[in-house]
Amino acid sequence: MRRTWIRRLLLVLCLVFFLAAVGDTAEEGAPDEPGAEALAPFVPKVAALTVGEALTYRITLAGIPAGYATLEVKRLDCWPGGRTSYYLKCRTRTNNFFSLFYEVDDTVRSYVDTGEFYSRKYEKRLNEGRYRRYQHILFDYERGMADYLGEDPDWRKVTPVMSVELPGRVLDPLAALYYLRACRLEVGKTLDLTVHTAGGNWLLSLTPEEEVALPVGRFGVRQAFVVKPRARFEGIFVRRGVMTVWLDKQTNIPLKLRVLVPVGTAEATLVKAKEADL
Questions:
Q1: Which of 17, 156, 158, 217 is least enclosed by beta carbons within 10 angstroms?
Q2: Number of domains making up the chain
Q3: pTM score, whole prediction
Q4: With the C-alpha atoms ordered 95, 221, 13, 163, is the resulting torsion angle positive or negative?
């Protein structure tokens, strides 16, 4: 029970599909079957990210500091065929106080094509108390398959253990967060994305409900869209309870996130932004 609510606390960082504290559907309860609704076709985008960008979020639970998460654009990598990819990384950690009861140190990595912004590889490593979980997904678009690789805590490539058919090019959960940078959001207009995770392809719907003036600490008052993401699966997205996300109007960078958990309200607030246009 303790692991469940702490994991949901960390899920507040999942913007819409944000991030490292990914709940496993096998433990949280079976999700709806993928493909039960129409998926959104992939639309190529050019998201001009800055290598070296780092966004830091402070996590609080009922107003008590609980930890931090950092989103980084680490570098550009070369791929066969002359294409390049962004290497994106997210790390979520509990602070010293919460670590006394339940330590969390989770990492997610995503490799995204720089030209059209589709996912090429996705990795996550969860260290939560005594719980350990590793996942490595390679997206093979020539075969139209997502290959899941076996357990490997050292991030090495290992033998595929499962392959899942892809509907075309897709986004992984972390890549989808950055994909928003290249999208134009409008109040009342829904943006649908197809996200691949948890062994399936899923529809994620985002509809800005209103525009507000949001005080964000050192960043002053920012104009922000208020979004309550909708998705049919557990894990990256929270199905139980309502998540609210405030996205910066100019950049679509998440400024603040809030979700109800069994012990109160969990929030993640942007506190640092290195090499970001804010």
A1: 156
A2: 1
A3: 0.84
A4: negative
